[in-house]
Amino acid sequence: MPVVGVYEDVLSQALGGIDEHSFDALCFEFGLELDDVTSDFEIACKERGKLAAEGLSKRVIYKVDIPANRYDLLCVEGVVRALSIFKGTLKTPVYQLSQKAPVANMRMTVHASVAQIRPFVVCAVLRGVTFNQDRYQSFIDLQDKLHMNICRKRTLCAIGTHDLSTLTPPFTYEALPPKDIKFVPLNQTEEMDGNRLMEAFAAHQQLKAYLPIIKDSPVYPVIFDSKRTVLSVPPIINGEHSKIRLETKDVFIEMTATDLTKANITLNTVVAMFSEYCEKPFTVEPVEVVYADDYPGNTFTQPGQKIIYPNLENRPMESKIDRLKSSLSLNHLTPEEVRDLLKKMSVPCELDAKDKNILQVEVPITRSDIMHECDLVEDIAISFGYNNLHLEVPMTFAGAAEQPVNHLTDLIRVEMANAGFTEALNWALLSRKENFVKMRREEKPEDLWRLVSRPHEYAETLLSVSVKDPKTKEFEIVRTSLLPGILKTLACNKAQEVPIRIFEAGDVVIQEPTREVGSRNVRRVAALYSSTKSAFSVLHGALDQLMYSLGFEPEHEHAEGSKRGTYKLVPSEDPAFLKGMQAHVMVQDIAIGVIGELHPEVLGREGFDINLATSAFEVNVEPFLEWL
Questions:
Q1: Angle at alpha carbon of residue 545, lines to 543 and 549, rounded to 5°
Q2: CB-CB contact of 140 with 160 (8 Å)
């Protein structure tokens, strides 16, 4: 969760005589948590020692944990405003444009070239802003927190803020080859082109993390004013020319993005928080964004389209009072009380003139977290007080019970443990090499629909589910078999006294094209027996005992009149096992598993490097839910 630092004296001035105890209680009522009470001096003492802390401020700072989706609370302005409205000392402000149409030349033209790298841009102007050191620092901190949160480290959206008095509109948003972009980056003295920019900031503590976003692109995004002065090269850095200072009065805000929705939310958050310091509070000057005629259209924008930003209109939403009350067992509240509770949470609303059971809600730009009626229910619960809610037992009966497949799995675990096997619990993610190459197996696309017609069949060639952009090669796919996991466990414990008996019961995930998510979980149990000499009979006996406990017996032992089901072993050709020393476990003519002696290449250096004779079996568990 993001943490916001708020000075005690600022809070005391805004909220009236606040101290640690009362602020902690207020945060709890509002659904926040006071994480720490400290100061710059104390932080430096803890991290670097007293000598490094000398001369630093001892102003008391309250560190507050903020919910990840409450972007309006990521700065001191937002926290103070929300708490003041909650306490009833401030009305929810109305955010508005200074005029319907932008002033002459207050325009951003989007060239077609940016569509291939960062296709969207949104803009706004704050006029007559009065900064002091605290406000300026809060302005910078809010941008950093938004970058790390909703902007996903600038991949979805990047914020640029500029001193408008140093620029000459209109502006253009283009994408050019790196060598054609020349400017002095923020806080630098050297003029650089795009290639030199990448070299210079490759070791920069903060900015180096953002370079890969555009580094390999043939063109870099860049914003110019009418004199071809570079404002920024998003998402990396702004230009030194338009740097904001304490004396800055007019702030030009531009945000380039790959996600237009996130960009709008981010822009609205910034202007809502800091328009408070404008000459006319909570008023924002609009900017026209014009997409070039040759711009390739998409779902959100079209060639030649002209859009006015920011959009400060409230989002209308209708809700039923009865439903809001019944969700929290607050049926004793009047419609007016429900309305007032919601207003305390910075959500303007009024009762419908014709029907008092209908609440007309105007969701403000600061509350992008409100997407559904259940979000209104949550706000009412916070406003009313969670500790004040009446506890009552629901009138419906819903007896808790274990899922049948989990209950069956637990019984199997007990049976395997009684047979002398030790349970292993492995990661569900592993590398493609471990799942297929080391097991001498391969995926076959032609088997994609195999599970549809025979859902309980065991097959080693089924397609796996891949992890998009894995952080490590060890977690590339979701396992399609339990055997690689227990073989890795065996490899890590091969120095233990033999024989080694290991089993695992858990899910594998396999592609299934008829499912909504394109895949499904399959519950399986797998076991192995490893020793200096082959002892297949021991593992075979464990399988017989497991099948017997599930109500099945070998077909050749089946007696007339027996109520038990039967199973048999038929030759198989799984490359992970030795040819002629393996078999499918067949029940009702369905191959539900495999058993055999593992292939030397699976056990050798090119495999899991075990070098012990090992037998193993793997069986689908779910069919037994139908057969028992």
A1: 115
A2: no
Please tell me what DSSP assigns to residue 311: -
Are 242 and 231 in contact by the 8 Å Cβ rule? The answer is: yes
Q: What is the pLDDT of residues 473-526, one digit of tens each?
A: 899 999 999 999 999 999 999 889 999 999 999 999 999 988 888 899 999 999
Pairing mode of beta strands 465-466, 565-571:
unpaired
- Structure confidence by residue, pLDDT tens digits, 170-206: 999 999 999 999 999 999 999 999 999 999 999 888 8
First to last CA, the chain: 47
Q: What is the mean pLDDT of residues 393-410?
A: 84
User: CB burial class (10 A; 0-12, 13-18, 19+) of residue 251?
Assistant: buried
Structure tokens at 459: 């097959």
Question: Which of 619 and 54 is assigned the larger pLDDT?
Answer: 619
Residue 304 amino acid letter: G
Q: Note the Cα 559 to chain centre separation in Å.
A: 57
In the predicted model, is pLDDT for residue 387 greater than 80?
A: yes
DSSP letter string, 280-295: STTEEB-EEEEE-TTS
For residue 43, what pLDDT is reported?
Answer: 82
Closest CA to 587 of 561, 613, 554, 611: 554
Confidence of residue 11 (pLDDT cuts 50, 70, 90): confident
Backbone angles phi, psi at 407, to 5 degrees: -65, -45
Residue 52, pLDDT above cutoff 80 = no
How far apart CA 327 and CA 323 sit, in angstroms, is 6
Burial of 272 (0-12, 13-18, 19+ CB in 10 A): buried
Q: Which residue has the tokens 């998009």?
A: 468
d(CA 93, CA 96): 10
pLDDT higher than 90, residue 19 = no
**pLDDT of res. 121:** 96
Whole-angstrom distance, CA of residue 458 vs CA of residue 452: 12
* CB of 186 closer than 8 Å to CB of 237: yes
Q: Are 310 and 286 in contact (CB under 8 A)?
A: yes
Q: State whether residue 13 is helix, strand or coil.
A: helix
Please name the residue that has the structure tokens 């926040």.
32
- For strand 565-571 and strand 552-554, is the pairing parallel, antiparallel, or unpaired? parallel
Angle at 276 between CA 275 and CA 281, to 5 degrees: 85
User: Please, which residues have CB within 8 angstroms of residue 337's CB and are 6 or more apart in sequence?
Assistant: none
The CA–CA distances, whole Å, from 396 to 73, 289, 392, 393, 399 equal 38, 55, 12, 9, 10
Number of H helices, E strands in the chain: 18, 31
DSSP code per residue over 527-550: EEEEESS--HHHHHHHHHHHHHHT
Q: How far apart are CA 289 and CA 304, in angstroms?
A: 10
Give the H/E segment covering residue 587.
strand 577-587
∠ CA 23-27-33, rounded to 5°: 110
Q: Give the whole-angstrom CA distance, residue 316 versus residue 295.
A: 32
The residue among 245, 242, 241, 247 whose CA lies nearest residue 189 is 241
Q: Report d(CA 428, CA 477) in Å as an integer.
A: 9
- Provide mean pLDDT across the span 392-417: 87
Find residue 595's DSSP bridge partners: 583, 617
- The helix/strand/coil state of 123 is strand
